[in-house]
Amino acid sequence: MTPDLPVPPVAENAHRHIDLTKIGAGRYKATNARGGVVAVGSGDDPDFTPVELLLAALAGCSAIDVDLITGKRAQATTFDVTAEGDKVRDEHGNRLVNLRLTFDVRFPDGEDGDRAREVLPRSIAQSHDRLCTVGRTVQVGGPIECLEA
Q1: What is the pTM of this model?
Q2: CB-hemisphere CA count at 13 Å for 117?
Q3: pLDDT tens figures, 46-89
Q4: Residue of 37, 39, 36, 34 lying closest to 23 (CA atoms)
Q5: Residue 86: CB partners within 8 Å, gap ≥ 6?
Q6: 26: nearest Cα among 41, 39, 37
Q7: Cα–Cα nearest to 2, from 138, 105, 133, 148
């Protein structure tokens, strides 16, 4: 169990939410406040499972951080991130362990590309240690309140 950390005051406009609606047997659609839609499935169809969405959220969150930092120096010619983990069932219930993000990022030759390559390791560390909300939430943990409407 993670020690209880002090919770700072919630900033104005900090609330995030999605709505999830059943659309078929083992299939749902998640809709955000901007109207974006993602299909969620149980693994019997091409839709992303909740676990795959968690991995995509981890990769996407860190990718955005790293791309914003390195992109100020040079735009990547290749930018791929692999997110992976192992699903286990133990005394703590079902969960993922051995979570890992692997970045394959390439920049153009030249001075700008050199500057981007130089900040790449630091930008990955900053995303991991401080910037990525998804990763920080997974690492720090916290209770999830489940309510019936």
Answers
A1: 0.89
A2: 11
A3: 999 999 999 999 999 999 999 999 999 999 999 999 999 999 99
A4: 39
A5: 96, 97, 98
A6: 41
A7: 138
Tell me the DSSP string of the chain. Answer: -PPPPPPPPPPTT----EEEEEEETTEEEEEETTS-EEEEE-SSSSSBPHHHHHHHHHHHHHHHHHHHHHTTT---SEEEEEEEEEEEEETTEEEEEEEEEEEEEE--SSHHHHHHHHHHHHHHHHIIIII-HHHHHHHH---------
Alpha carbons 135 and 132: distance in angstroms, whole number: 5
- Token pair of 23 as six digits: 């659309």
Per residue in 38-53, pLDDT (tens digit) is 999 999 999 999 999 9
Other C-beta atoms lying within 10 Å of the C-beta of residue 146? 5
Q: What is the residue type of 91?
A: E
Q: Residue 86, class by beta-carbon neighbours within 10 Å (0-12 exposed, 13-18 middle, 19+ buried)? A: exposed
